[in-house]
């Protein structure tokens, strides 16, 4: 799962952007966009601004949930009162082989608690859990275990309520830090946010929730 | 904006760059991000300190101005950014269930009358009125009997048209603009002269007769904040009203 987060000002100008990957299920927090996709992401985000403008007057909530979709890229939006858009593009892993690669490396120690937690929802995980802890030579079964595991995670289900809630929490935390940023007397609307502390805070929120 | 994005904007990590960009942290290590946004109920500012600062702001704005209109405009401009920021701050402080962006004029004016006024002046505005003139449906009035900003301002006789509450008008204008309701807000004294602000020259002065001079003796400093929305705001308002 890869994420591209952008803050767009009132003149449709970018104020901040940040790329990251999931940190859940043993993810390393790195975005897995290809070079081409990285450039495309900015276009996708900007094209979804039209839809945001349509939705924003029908609903007074700040969190507008999922607003747009472009092939496998889903765009969630959060709109502050002063018309600043927080847009999060999230892309579920395109093919299972490339996405499951980071899992076996950290399978032995770190991912066991997450397996236990997800086994409550799907019983099919339990046999693969035993093979996973059994040995490293059963790499094919760990891969299938990985994919069935992500079916309940936020990564594979961009439209599920859990994902929606996780993104809501992420946006809420970014919003708090954004309001703090604009409280600076030297900040004017539509100025780029360059604070490294702000960037670190966004990264922390991404690690915490997504 | 994109032409001055930092080079590593995409994947740059944390505060590692802080050192070479020459950014300096406060000695206690606490930046603006470490401070809470909510304030305690008792945390109020000294009125004397505000009065002193505001008097300086007025005299600063008065330098090299050619007329009262320009002076009011400068005061308005000083207040504008405050309004823009207040909008986000006050909505953030609302409990999550009522954290709603104002979608129509009434909701916005209520937000100003209650939340903004309570935050700034410790009480609500006294009245909210819509222009009774059918030719100007875009004009609304927020009425304050005794604006706090004017408490220690004595306007000389030859500048009787001046109302330093133009600063507060600027704050209101900032809130309106920020929320997506572009408007022009002007402050008019209606207490003693009864519509004395009508020659403001903004074209919206006619609405100031809403005060009707009533209670002029009781509230000599009564100020009407005339909010004149841009035509596109009313157009959108009609569209949204028709849909819902």
UniProtKB/TrEMBL annotation, chain A:
Region (Disordered) location: 97-161
Biased composition range(s): Low complexity: 97-153
Pfam families reported for this sequence: Sedlin_N
SUPFAM superfamilies recorded: SNARE-like
Single GO biological process annotation from the record: endoplasmic reticulum to Golgi vesicle-mediated transport
Family matches, as InterPro entries: Longin-like_dom_sf (IPR011012), Sedlin (IPR006722)
Top-level taxon of the source organism: Eukaryota
Record-level GO cellular component terms: cytoplasm; nucleus; TRAPP complex
Protein's UniProt name: MIP-2A
Organism taxonomic ancestry: Eukaryota, Fungi, Dikarya, Ascomycota, Pezizomycotina
Automatic annotation (TrEMBL), chain B:
Keywords: Endoplasmic reticulum, ER-Golgi transport, Golgi apparatus, Transport
Protein's UniProt keywords contain Ribosomal protein: no
Chain intervals for the UniProt region annotation (Disordered): 1-21, 191-217
Pfam families documented for this protein: TRAPP
GO cellular component, one term: TRAPPI protein complex
Main localization category: endoplasmic reticulum
Bias kind Gly residues: ranges: 9-19, 192-210
GO biological process: endoplasmic reticulum to Golgi vesicle-mediated transport
Subcellular location: Endoplasmic reticulum; Golgi apparatus, cis-Golgi network
SUPFAM superfamilies: Ligand-binding domain in the NO signalling and Golgi transport
Chain's role: Plays a key role in the late stages of endoplasmic reticulum to Golgi traffic.
Family: Belongs to the TRAPP small subunits family. BET3 subfamily.
Subunit structure: Part of the multisubunit TRAPP (transport protein particle) complex.
Name of the protein in its database record: Trafficking protein particle complex subunit
């Amino acid at each position: 799962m890869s994420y591209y987060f952008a803050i767009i000002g009132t003149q449709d100008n970018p104020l901040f952007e940040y790329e990251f990957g999931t940190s859940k299920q043993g993810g390393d927090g790195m975005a897995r966009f290809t070079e081409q996709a990285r450039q495309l992401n900015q276009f996708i985000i900007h094209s979804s601004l039209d839809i945001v403008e349509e939705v924003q007057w029908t609903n007074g909530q700040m969190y507008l949930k999922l607003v747009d979709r472009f092939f496998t890229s889903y765009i969630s939006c959060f709109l502050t009162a002063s018309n600043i858009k927080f847009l999060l593009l999230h892309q579920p892993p395109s093919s299972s082989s490339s996405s499951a690669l980071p899992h076996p490396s950290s399978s032995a120690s770190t991912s066991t608690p997450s397996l236990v937690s997800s086994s409550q929802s799907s019983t099919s995980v339990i046999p693969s859990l035993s093979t996973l802890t059994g040995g490293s030579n059963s790499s094919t079964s760990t891969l299938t275990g990985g994919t069935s595991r992500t079916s309940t995670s936020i990564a594979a289900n961009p439209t599920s309520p859990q994902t929606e809630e996780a993104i809501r929490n992420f946006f809420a935390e970014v919003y708090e830090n954004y309001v703090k940023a604009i409280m600076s007397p030297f900040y004017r609307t539509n100025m780029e946010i360059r604070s490294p502390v702000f960037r670190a805070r966004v990264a922390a929120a991404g690690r915490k929730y997504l | 904006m994109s032409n001055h994005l930092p080079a590593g904007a995409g994947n740059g990590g944390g505060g590692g760059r802080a050192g070479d960009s020459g950014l300096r942290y406060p000695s206690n290590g606490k930046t603006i991000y470490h401070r809470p946004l909510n304030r305690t109920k008792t945390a109020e500012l000294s009125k004397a300190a505000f009065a002193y600062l505001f008097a300086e702001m007025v005299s600063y704005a008065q330098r090299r101005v050619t007329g009262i209109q320009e002076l009011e405009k400068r005061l308005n401009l000083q207040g504008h950014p405050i309004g823009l920021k207040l909008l986000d701050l006050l909505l953030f402080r609302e409990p999550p269930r009522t954290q709603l962006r104002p979608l129509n004029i009434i909701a916005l004016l209520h937000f100003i009358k209650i939340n903004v006024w309570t935050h700034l002046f410790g009480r609500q505005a006294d009245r909210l009125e819509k222009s009774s003139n059918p030719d100007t449906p875009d004009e609304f009035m927020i009425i304050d009997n005794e604006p706090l900003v004017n408490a220690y301002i004595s306007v000389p006789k030859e500048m009787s048209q001046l109302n330093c509450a133009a600063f507060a008008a600027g704050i209101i204008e900032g809130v309106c603009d920020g929320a997506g309701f572009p408007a022009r807000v002007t402050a008019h004294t209606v207490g003693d002269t009864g519509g004395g602000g009508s020659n403001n020259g903004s074209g919206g002065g006619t609405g100031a007769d809403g005060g009707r001079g009533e209670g002029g003796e009781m509230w000599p400093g009564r100020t009407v904040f005339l909010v004149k929305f841009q035509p596109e705001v009313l157009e959108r308002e009609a569209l949204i009203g028709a849909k819902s």
